[in-house]
Amino acid sequence: MPCPSSCPPGLLALMAPGLALMATFSLPSQAGDRRALPVEKPPGVKGRTLILLDVNTKSPVRIISENFLSLQLDPSIIHDGWLDFLSSRRLVTLARGLAPAFLRFAGKRTDFLQFHNVKNPAKSRGGPGPDYYLKNYEDDIVRSDIALDKQKGCKIAQHPDIMLELQREKAAQMHLVLLKEQFSNTYSNLTLTARSLDKLYNFADCSGLHLIFALNALCRNPNNSWNSSNALSLLKYSASKKYNISWELGNEPNNYRTLMGRSVNGSQLGRDYTQLRSLLQLIRTYSRAHLYGPNIGRPRKNVVAFLEGFMKVAGGTVDAVTWQHYYIDGRVAKVTDFLKTRLLDTLSDQIRKIQKVVNTYTPGKKIWLEGVGMTSAGGMNNLSDSYAAGFLWLNTLGLLASQGIDVVVRHSFLDHGHNHLVDQNFNPLPDYWLSLLYKRLIGPKVLAIHVAGLQRKPRPGRVIRDKLRIYAHCTSYHNHNYVRGSITLYIINLHRSRKKIKLAGTLRDKIVHQYLLQPYGKDGLHSKSVQLNGQPLAMVDDGTLPELKPRPLRAGRTLVIPPLTMSFYVVKNVNALACRYR
Predict the structure, then answer these.
(1) What is the pTM of this model?
(2) If pLDDT is split at 50, 70 and 90, which confidence band does 144 have?
(3) Is the N-terminal amide bond of 8 cis, ω within 30° of 0?
(4) Cβ contacts of residue 354 below 8 Å, gap of 6+?
């Protein structure tokens, strides 16, 4: 229901906000409703839109996990050598910036991964060439370059530039091999050694991330049941090291016929998960470990049937139900694709389908979106790693939180085509800075908003798309710059013109801190660098993360949202009841 122009701003808080947080330029009250509100333009308002915004501060509509924004590493890092560099001080620093979070170790090569309980099978072969040094860097690097992090007792390395250069050359060669496998859909087996697992766990533990390890589900007996012998070897080794790990089984199991010419239906995978749960209970370290799955692909008709079969058998076995989503075919994406509201809305339908199945069999079970990326097929250079991709990423975070999805896992933190957050020079890309801002400012409590606006009458037959998207949360309790009771708004403006928002009701006349993220440099939306409030963002020379400084706005000032931007606004001292307590 629109608010007439005569309504006092304070009445906005009393109007029904609904459960959706999405506010659009066409101002629907719920996501997916694209009807323009029948408000009239008062005299004197010409050619501009005034948007009045209020937030329900009494109680949250959703509460998501503290680890809501989490990360993924693809097993291909074993193949191309980047796993050996996870102890890099720079990488650990970047990962710590996004903690607390889960670190999921999974991808298409999950089901070709074999664990061998040997420290380093390559130790005895190879000469003093580049490959030798890459495989044995922990022994050959200058000892003074390996520091002990006194706070956590972690192995942190400062790798010489020549080693990183050699690794980039090796990775470039291996990338061609991996691409050939991907496009031919034929994958070679991968070996994970005990030392490799140690490095992976060291990275997760030092970074404040909780490791989730996906076991190979394509180890099959003649009767098509899961062969757990190799998994048991890995579990026993991890338990002997007292590694705190959660577990999964397989990756996108609905696609196994395409990968191996051998299908596994949902019921069979459910029985495999039940078998894995029994296995975990036999090992004291993991008797209470969390188990997640089935990590299905996009919920088309056959995939929904797969999920139903799984839930009938193992719905009570898993701690959260998981699926994955990629927005665009990375081989044909254009920068304008990232601005299409139809594309941003494709996720809503998938959420409804997954929730319908889960609530049918296990009402209230948590749902995770694991393995989300802006584009499939590894993405495209200067597109899925550019500023433009951030519109999809930030909208994904807002939409999932508003719909009660507990965790979203970003694929990938490092080295997965061009969907990653950190490049091969260990420099953060635009989506990393967006994720860092999200982690610093956004808390787990999701708030309902209400918007009323004034706009020009649309041309006949023109569909007004929701190009202005607004979400609200309690400000993160971990951010000590703001007292409890503060509220953070984050706004996506896909319009090619600026928009003005007037804070009303409980937000009226409060001091606001602005964090405006824009592309930096001449490449515009294609840029791989960003600026915050006009200042370029980059790691400090000493290898630490920069301070994210806000721009204070005068109390009562109208928010001016520049075109094609993403921004965060912390409304201070609201004393929101929903945000005062954890």
Answers:
(1) 0.87
(2) very low
(3) no
(4) 299, 307, 321, 323, 367
